[in-house]
């Protein structure tokens, strides 16, 4: 009995002691010190290798890997847990970001192996030094560096502020650039923050079509391996066509915002030659939307101020120029009409997806009334619907301008829209409808009407655009006949196989 009693007391004392040791270790940080010593002790039995990632190469060029490692390390949870680290305000006023201190050591785990990084600073030169056990090196080094690449790419994509790049004129017309050239070093692009607020949600368009475009873009950005297996350039080309003021440029902005891609707006009138266009493209980055607006004007010879040839543009559209540098580009071409365009230019591969932007129909009108006036329904809606049924229409730009101008009085806004439809828009849809009867062949009646305005928010180098909203006479055809599920089912067979499912040719 006494033995049992003594054993119980002993057990109790052991448990209490263990509990007290645990409290002591965890509350005082002794556990942390013990772990640290233990790791140092373990390291004594391993041969380690060190890899340096200097900030600059010998030629004083930025080492991109240094930047990626920095982005990666600053995102690690071990940064937060480290003894000390720097705190900075982020891009947003309430954001706080962590930053490595010189000579700070950061631990990381990868595939069960422990590695550490030190942010070494000597003679004003920063270098990250990776310490990895020799036994683990062969197994983890390559995948670890790839992991750093992809994590930092993702983080940069999420955090980056989008930019709008605009090509400036090349004063030399020979297109012969050498490496020391200032112009080349600074690049032919000037950029401003891309702050266009347009999103797919703000664009009045068939929901189904919008969703198809979104999923098309999503599947494109995941399809790197697929494109490479096919031996194709990883790009996707869109043609947005339709009358002025129907939302083509806004849609490009929505695409860029959706993808978080920079926008390169190529003004062909500022491209002096084919080699100049090549140079411009070589200076674009991957994960970007490259836009050529009003391509029809160039193709039908209205922009004759440039020595750029058709074949130069076709090479660009085919992506031949891009194979030598980065990929993952979305190309967008806009046109008012594709009537006079040689079908070969618009063939799949050059243009993968055609999207028609029509004038307003009643459904688009309701979307605009909801977004501009906050109206879901109104007693004047049936009257508006009837006018649409009679074939009248306006462009979404005209319609939304009228609504915005009268936003304080929804009834007045609707009456103004009705008057405009009855006068300006009368017969616009039906007249165009007659033209549409011949297989989608249509042409704006007064394409030459020109007007100034600002496209995106840009500085004074921004291209001015030239059309008067609402002067075009085209039919609103919102019901696409080709959005059938059978075609959509073929979507993955080739990058252009879902052309028909998105194409809205009437
Ligand atoms: N479908 C739409 N939904 C919402 N707003 C639209 C739509 N279409 C045009 N708008 C509005 O009209 C204005 C002009 O649109 P946008 O510049 O995108 O037209 P566009 O088709 O590019 O015209 P253009 O052919 O003249 O360049 C923008 O302010 C835009 O917000
Ligand atoms: Mg436009």
TrEMBL record:
Q: What's the domain of life for this entry?
A: Eukaryota
User: What is catalysed by this protein?
Assistant: ATP + H2O = ADP + phosphate + H(+)
Q: Which InterPro entries match?
A: AAA+_ATPase, AAA_N_dom, At3g28540-like_C, ATPase_AAA_core, Mitochondrial_chaperone_BCS1, P-loop_NTPase
User: Which residue stretches belong to region Disordered?
Assistant: 424-453, 476-506
Q: In its UniProt record, which GO terms are filed under biological process? A: response to stress
Alphabetically, the GO molecular function entries are: ATP binding; ATP hydrolysis activity
Q: Which UniProt keywords apply?
A: ATP-binding, Hydrolase, Magnesium, Nucleotide-binding
List, separated by semicolons, the cofactors it needs: Mg(2+)
TM ranges:
none
Protein name, per record: AAA+ ATPase domain-containing protein
Source species: Acer negundo (Box elder)
């Amino acid at each position: 009995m006494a033995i049992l009693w003594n054993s119980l007391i002993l057990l109790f004392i052991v448990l209490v002691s263990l509990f007290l040791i645990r409290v002591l270790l965890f509350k005082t940080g002794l556990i942390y010190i013990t772990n640290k010593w233990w790791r140092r002790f373990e390291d004594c039995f391993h041969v380690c290798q060190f890899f340096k990632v200097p900030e600059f190469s010998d030629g004083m060029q930025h080492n991109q890997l240094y930047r990626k490692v920095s982005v990666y390390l600053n995102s690690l949870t071990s940064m937060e847990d480290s003894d000390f680290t720097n705190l900075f305000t982020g891009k947003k006023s309430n954001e706080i970001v962590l930053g490595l201190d010189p000579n700070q050591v950061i631990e990381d785990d990868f595939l069960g192996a422990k590695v550490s990084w030190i942010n070494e600073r000597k003679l004003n030169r920063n270098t990250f030094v990776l310490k990895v056990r020799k036994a683990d090196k062969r197994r983890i080094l390559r995948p670890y560096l790839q992991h750093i690449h992809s994590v930092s790419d993702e983080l940069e994509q999420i955090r980056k502020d989008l930019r709008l790049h605009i090509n400036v004129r090349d004063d030399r017309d020979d297109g012969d650039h050498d490496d020391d050239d200032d112009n080349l070093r600074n690049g032919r692009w000037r950029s401003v923050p891309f702050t266009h607020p347009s999103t797919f949600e703000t664009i009045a368009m068939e929901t189904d079509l919008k969703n198809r475009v979104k999923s098309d873009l999503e599947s494109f950005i995941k399809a790197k391996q697929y494109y490479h297996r096919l031996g194709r350039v990883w790009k996707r080309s869109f043609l947005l066509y339709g009358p002025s003021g129907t939302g083509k440029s806004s849609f490009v902005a929505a695409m860029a915002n959706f993808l978080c891609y920079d926008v390169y707006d190529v003004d062909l009138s500022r491209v002096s030659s084919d080699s100049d266009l090549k140079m411009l493209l070589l200076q674009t980055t991957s994960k970007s939307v490259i836009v050529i607006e009003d391509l029809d004007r160039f193709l039908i010879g209205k922009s004759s101020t440039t020595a750029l040839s058709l074949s130069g543009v076709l090479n660009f559209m085919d992506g031949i120029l891009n194979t030598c540098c980065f990929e993952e580009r979305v190309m967008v071409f806009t046109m008012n009409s594709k009537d006079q365009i040689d079908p070969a230019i618009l063939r799949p591969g050059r243009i993968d997806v055609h999207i028609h932007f029509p004038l307003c129909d009643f459904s688009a009108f309701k979307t605009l009334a909801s977004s501009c006036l906050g109206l879901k329904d109104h007693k004047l809606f049936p009257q508006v619907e009837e006018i649409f049924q009679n074939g009248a229409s306006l462009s979404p730009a005209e319609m939304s301008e009228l609504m915005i101008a009268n936003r304080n009085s929804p009834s007045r806004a609707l009456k103004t829209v009705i008057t405009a439809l009855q006068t300006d828009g009368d017969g616009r849809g039906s007249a165009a409808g007659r033209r549409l009867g011949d297989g989608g062949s249509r042409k704006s009646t007064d394409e030459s009407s020109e007007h100034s305005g600002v496209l995106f928010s840009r500085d004074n180098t921004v291209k001015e655009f030239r059309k008067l909203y609402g002067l075009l006479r085209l039919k609103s055809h919102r019901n696409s006949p080709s959005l059938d599920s059978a075609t959509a089912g073929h979507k993955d067979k080739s990058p252009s196989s879902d052309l028909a499912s998105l194409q809205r040719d009437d």
